[in-house]
Amino acid sequence: MARPLRIEYPGAWYHVTCRGNQRIRIFEDDQDRKRFLKALEESIEAFNVEVHCYVMLDNHFHFLLKTPEGNLGRFMQRFNTAYIAYYNLRHHKSGHLYQGRYKALLVEADEYLLELSRYIHLNPVRLKKYRETSIEEKSKVLKGYIWSSLPGYLRIKSRDEFMCYDAVMAYMGGDDKRGRVRYRDFVLRGLSQELDDPLKEAKANAILGSDSFVVRIKEQFLDVGTWKDKDYPHLKRLKESIPLGDIAKAVAEEYGVRPEEILRPRSKSREARQVLIELGYQLNFKKKSLGELGRELGGIGGDGVAHVHERIQNKIKKDKRLFQRIIRLQKKLLCQ
Fold first, then answer.
1. Rounded distance, CA 114 to CA 122, Å?
2. In sequence order, what E strands does the chain have?
3. Residue 274's Cα: distance from chain center in Å?
4. Highest mean pLDDT: which of 208-217, 265-274, 284-293?
5. Which residues share a beta bridge with 62?
6. Same domain, 268 and 176
7. Is residue 68 located within the same domain as residue 119?
């Protein structure tokens, strides 16, 4: 069986899940759960990953996360290795704890972020044993379930320091008392509604997003020559990194400026400078950290690189001309 496609790029959002091998328990008690969260926190700090939602069940877990540096694979390898090593040592076991590799769906955040957060937070009462339970009892179970990120969304004092709450709460009007009440009501309404499973909408078990999002991913990050709508596992991952000097030369030629001009932090050719940063971000992240890329771009910080990427991604959703320009430059650079 072909391995599932792993699409990685800076700023990508994912729904990640992992189950125990043959559905065995992956947590024996609260000590295991606390160590799991410690491994998660350490891995977040090591790889600059943002976790926005999580839930831990007896035999599996779910994450909703974002990778500013496009490093999901390295993050999950470090995280899973750390917890499995602890678990096997403590419980005198060996071998595989999880059922195969983790599953990761690339997610279009604007379309699915809020609904996925609810789906994840409702998991504790989606178990068979609660099938005939009243809505009132399910609500009580959810509010009292401490092994998920939901308590932090409802109460400031219950928050995990490593968690990110702003993105989801922005859909509720902000991270304040009113926003938290709105989010609580949004989640609890899911107990009385027949909600569709958002994960069933994924394309080829790899991408969860609108048709336009899938097309954009295909054109920006996948090998167009081998693209098949129903055959994602045979697609290639991102292309190898390309020297920033080559990218600057191509962008400068496209905009009719000198490469040195757009390599300077305060370039007068603002859009060309942003396009250079975006292409450098996309094509070089596998070999360089954001900090290294920022230094090559004139000494700007890694956060500055990430912020430009976010602005460009928002802009190309509305500016077809800019989107096509970036695609044209990508193809040119990839075919060199």
1. 13
2. 12-19, 50-56, 60-67, 103-107, 207-208
3. 23
4. 265-274
5. 17, 55
6. no
7. yes
Tell me the sheet residues that pair with 19. Answer: 60
Residue 2 pLDDT > 90, yes or no?
Answer: no
The count of domains in the chain is 2
pLDDT (tens digit per residue) in 227-240: 344 433 333 334 45
Give the three-state DSSP class for 193. Answer: coil
**Radius of gyration, alpha carbons of the chain:** 22
CATH code of residue 322: 1.10.1750.10
With cut-offs at 50, 70 and 90, classify the pLDDT of residue 286: low
Is the pTM above the cut of 0.85?
no
Owner of token pair 């968690």: 163
User: Do residue 172 and residue 285 come from a single domain?
Assistant: no
One domain, residues 195 and 60: yes
Taking residues 277-304, report their average pLDDT.
79
Cα 205 from Cα 208, distance rounded (Å):
8
Query: pLDDT, tens digit, for every residue of 137-146?
Result: 999 999 999 9
d(CA 76, CA 103) in angstroms, rounded, equals: 11
Answer yes or no: do 59 and 190 share one domain: yes
320-334 and 270-284 helices, crossing angle to 10°:
50
What's the pLDDT at 189?
Answer: 93
Residue 76 has which token pair?
Answer: 């999950």
CB 37 within 8 A of CB 86: no
The closest of 74, 173, 99, 75 to 63, measured between CA atoms, is 75
| 239 vs 59: CA distance, rounded Å | 36
Residue for token pair 């996360």: 65
DSSP codes of every residue in 109-157: HHHHHHHHHHHHHHGGG-SGGGTT--HHHHHHHHHH--SBSHHHHH-GG
Q: Which domain holds residue 71?
A: 12-201
| Residue at 100: amino acid letter | G
